Every structure is written in C-alpha cells, then in structure tokens.
Amino acid sequence: MSDILATQGLRRSFVQGEDTIEVLRGVDLHVAPGEIVALLGPSGSGKSTLLQAVGLLEGGFEGSIRIKGQEAARLDADGRTTLRRDALGFVYQFHHLLPDFDATENVVLPQLIHGAETADAQVRAKSLLSSLGLGHRLTHRPSQLSGGEQQRVAVARALANRPALVLADEPTGNLDEATADIVFSEFLALVRGEGSAALVATHNERLAARMDRVVRLHDGVLE
Fold first, then answer.
1. ABC transporter domain spans which residues (predicted)?
2. Exposed/middle/buried for 39, CB within 10 Å: 0-12, 13-18, 19+?
3. What is residue 180's predicted lDDT score, i.e. its pLDDT?
4. Domain hosting residue 118, numbered range
C-alpha cells in the first residue's frame, strides 16, 4: 500500500533579526499504513515544527507533503482543512480539552463537526473512553479529572474520527513517569487496535523503543 505520509525535501526557516535560522533542512520521511514511528530529538531540534508541517497547521514550508496520496501544496485552504479533518488526529503534551464539556462531549464534538449523527458519536465516544479505563468518568469535566485521565480523553478525541494518521507531540510529557507509562501503553494499544498510523515526537528513548521504528531529527535532517 502507498504511504500514509510522505515528505520530500521539507524545509522551514525563521528570520530572527538579521539571521535566518533553518529548523528543517530537507526532511524526507515516510510512514506506512498502521506503522507507529517515533520521532526522537532533543528539545529545540525541530520535532514540533515537523509535526506542524505534516499536520497542515501552518504555512511557510518548502518541499512536498503527501497525506494519503494527496499533495498538500496543491490544495487551497479549504482543501487542507478537509484533509486535516478527515485524515489526521492530534495529541499534544497539554490536553487542550474544552473545560465546559464533560469527557464524552469532548470526544463527541469532533465527530459532529465531521458530520456524524449525535447518537452514533456518543456510542463511539463512550466506547473509546471505556477502552481507556474511563467508563466511570464519562460525565466528568476536565477539572474533575486527573492529569492522566485528561490525557486519556485527549487520546480518545484524537481517534474519534478514525484518522489514518495520528500526530502526537510529547503526548505523555506532562505526566509523572508511572502515569506516563500507563497512558502511553494505552495510547499504543488503542492506535494499533484502530489500525491507525502514528508519528510520535518524543525525547524519551525508552518510550521510543516501544514503537515500530525510530527516526532521529538532528540539525534539521533525519538520521
């Protein structure tokens, strides 16, 4: 099968005063369907910038980004929004849950935006949350949940629309080590169970070793 994600010659630079800083210097990356890839690199190496690029979250990039065979550079803003909504799921270090919505509603909402029926979206949300051990916390708001529970809701939200590719930026970086291990195990199990691919940025070698493949970002290029 074709790659879910393929980048070629991906570049990104920023101007600071009189200096131009090259963060990405020609990144070639391929992620196969169902493959979970660890993106390793120290803080400041460009991991988040790469995820923003392949997540179609901002412009200013040079090179090719193909998602499910579609070349992002050939799409207008509406086309990129549609591709991002239909093909991608996102998990961040901080959960960014809607504080006035309970756990179920936070997972239902992206499905409604995607066009799902309310009843179907609720069934899907409760199933995902229950698989993450939150069956007894469905009606709790984020302020009533622990950090690990909030991040589990964020994982369920990312998988709600059955994305072909999940992009995760230090998804357990805000948790203590013991909780991070549990949540990450559940994240991997759910992604694999859903059949999604994933690109997971981390600086944690131990977590990276649990994924299918490891790539390292160093000085703006992949090793």
1. 5-223
2. buried
3. 84
4. 5-222
In the sheet where 221-222 sits, what is the strand order? 88-91, 165-169, 197-202, 36-40, 213-218, 221-222
> 94-129 burial, b for 16+ CB within 10 Å, e for fewer?
ebebeeeebbbbbbbbbbeeeebeeeebbebbbebb
Closest to 142 (Cα-Cα) out of 159, 160, 157, 130: 157
If you average pLDDT over residues 166-190, what whole number do you get?
86
Closest alpha carbon to 11 in 28, 2, 24, 21: 24
Helix or strand run (H / E) with residue 82:
helix 77-87
Q: What is the CATH number of the domain that holds 126?
A: 3.40.50.300
Residues 39-87 have pLDDT tens digits of 998 777 788 889 999 998 877 888 999 999 889 888 888 999 999 988 9
What are 111's two structure tokens? Answer: 């499905």
Q: CA separation (Å) from 23 to 158, 175, 177?
A: 27, 27, 29
Look at residue 209 in the predicted model and tell me its pLDDT: 92
Q: For residue range 87-144, what is the model confidence (pLDDT) as tens digits?
A: 999 988 777 899 999 999 999 999 998 889 999 999 999 999 998 889 999 999 999 9
Which among 160, 159, 183 has a CA at the least distance from the CA of 172?
Answer: 183
Within 10 A of 206 (CB to CB), how many other CB atoms are there? 11
How many domains are there within the chain? 1
